[in-house]
Amino acid sequence: xxxxxxxxxxxxxxxxxxxxxxxxxxxxxxxxxxxxxxxxxxxxxxxxxxxxxxxxxxxxxxxxxxxxxxxxxxxxxxxxxxxxxxxxxxxxxxxxxxxxxxxxxxxxxxxxxxxxxxxxxxxxxxxxxxxxxxxxxxxxxxxxxxxxxxxxxxxxxxxxxxxxxxxxxxxxxxxxxxxxxxxxxxxxxxxxxxxxxxxxxxxxxxxxxxxxxxxxxxxxxxxxxxxxxxxxxxxxxxxxxxxxxxxxxxxxxxxxxxxxxxxxxxxxxxxxxxxxxxxxxxxxxxxxxxxxx
Length: 293
Fold this sequence. Notes:
Blueprint: E1 2-4, E2 10-11, E3 25-27, E4 35-43, E5 55-63, E6 68-75, E7 84-92, E8 95-101, E9 106-108, E10 114-116, H1 117-123, E11 137-145, E12 148-155, E13 158-161, E14 167-170, E15 173-183, H2 206-213, E16 218-224, H3 225-237, E17 242-247, H4 256-261, E18 270-275, H5 280-290
Antiparallel strand pairs: 1-2, 1-3, 4-5, 4-15, 5-6, 6-7, 7-8, 8-11, 9-10, 11-12, 12-15, 13-14, 16-18, 17-18
């Protein structure tokens, strides 16, 4: 919606001047995000599995001081995660960012079925006495108008330390999301809302699209944890974004002190580092400088 800069009347977005006084119409800017929002999120092409279609959700937000807001989030059955999650973020028109965390973490298998993180660990032969919370997910967005917002979400690689001192790392995941304002009544529980994963995909930046839909990252190889941490720092200093995954399978039968020192015969934990294709040459040069022949 737009608003006349002179008389204050509101008109649809396609109207350019006020038909009453001919004054310019300005976009209506939302000052606070307090209220109920209905949205939907979807996975990027690389993360799509059976049963990973768009998931509808409801945000109930309350604006606080200095652009900070908090709230709750629930996801619609059957594809959404059960329970009520928490939301904590900041809003300053036209951008919004918040972290979402659901009370219980779930993983989806290749056949599309879902199990809790606890069930997943037990199935893999680990002990787990309680349900584990979901990894935090960062939502970034830009407002299209006063009542509509869209953007991307990212779950960074998440490391879970196990009772036997081994660990597993959940992979990075990303996708798109959008939401629209419904009402200021926090007691309302609407069921409608956006039906698509995005309002206008063309309004996302190239960087946002590349982050979710870009070419698969290139592997630079596997390194010991100490070497990987040093390389990741050097890559960051060079402005090269990287991702990593950790393989601790070789450590599961090792004594704790052996696991720390690296063990025998190359049995220490290994980390695989990935970079975007356009950064591969520069990243390999840094690796070569770090490991001269």
